[in-house]
Specification:
The chain has 7 helices and 9 strands; from the N terminus they run E-H-E-H-E-H-E-H-E-E-E-H-E-H-E-H. The protein is of the alpha/beta class.
């Protein structure tokens, strides 16, 4: 079956964290680029550039206003941060219940000294996050200043992907960092892990520039049902 393009962007940032634009302008850009859906996913509360907790209600109001005027699906989300080795994330259950989509990422690690130790630390934190929290998408998987998957054993990656499948956590194709690699994505498809697409956009000009990801999906022989998109369309 030929891959049918599914244009969506489930990883964007606004002025509520470290983005450079308003919610309304990001949504307008998504519509102009012909997307089916966009998720506004500012950084979680404990990251230095994350959204302050007291501004969550304001962010959700802005997203609701944009949704009312939009001709596409608009999702309210957060990119939560894993804050310790036990996989704790900086968005609690009360806040996550107010969201349409919850992403999780890793921006902080311990003091490992070589690439293998860094990769092992990353894997431990990601594994614990999936085991202990309910969320939708793990973003820019295995990217921390550079791509870490080659420093892990194949069986470790297989175990991780199977864990994600069991917890219904999707893996992101991240356009900003162009990760993960196609070998990892093939493993995801084989194990039934859904894939998401995210530009990691911080400006309207970056929103929806998903052609690279669509090319990857075509090469992999992915189908629309392999993507997370339809789970969020109403």
């Amino acid at each position: 079956m030929t891959f049918m393009p599914a244009k969506f962007d489930f990883h964007t940032h606004t002025l509520y964290s470290d983005g450079a634009s308003t919610v309304a302008l990001m949504v307008e850009a998504a519509e102009a680029r012909g997307l089916e859906a966009i998720a506004l996913t500012d950084h979680g509360f404990e990251l230095s550039m994350g959204i302050p907790r007291e501004k969550l209600a304001s962010m959700l109001r802005d997203i609701e206003i944009a949704r009312e005027d939009a001709g596409i699906q608009v999702l309210a989300g957060i990119e939560a941060n894993v804050v310790d080795e036990w996989g704790t994330i900086d968005v609690n259950d009360e806040s996550s219940r107010k969201l349409d989509i919850l992403l999780v990422s890793i921006h902080r690690l311990g003091r490992a000294r070589n690439p293998t130790e860094i990769a092992r630390d990353y894997l431990m934190r990601a594994t614990n996050a999936i085991e202990h929290h309910k969320f939708d998408v793990f973003v820019h998987p295995f990217y921390f200043h550079h791509y870490l998957a080659p420093h892990l054993l194949p069986e470790d990656l297989e175990d991780f992907v199977r864990l994600a499948a069991g917890h219904e956590v999707a893996m992101e194709i991240n356009i900003k960092y162009r990760t993960p690699d196609e070998e990892f994505l093939r493993l995801c498809l084989r194990e039934g892990v859904k894939l998401s697409v995210g530009t990691d956009a911080h400006t309207p000009g970056e929103v929806g520039r998903v052609d690279w990801a669509l090319g990857v999906l075509r090469r992999l022989g992915a189908k629309r049902e392999d993507l997370i998109l339809d789970s969020f369309l109403r």
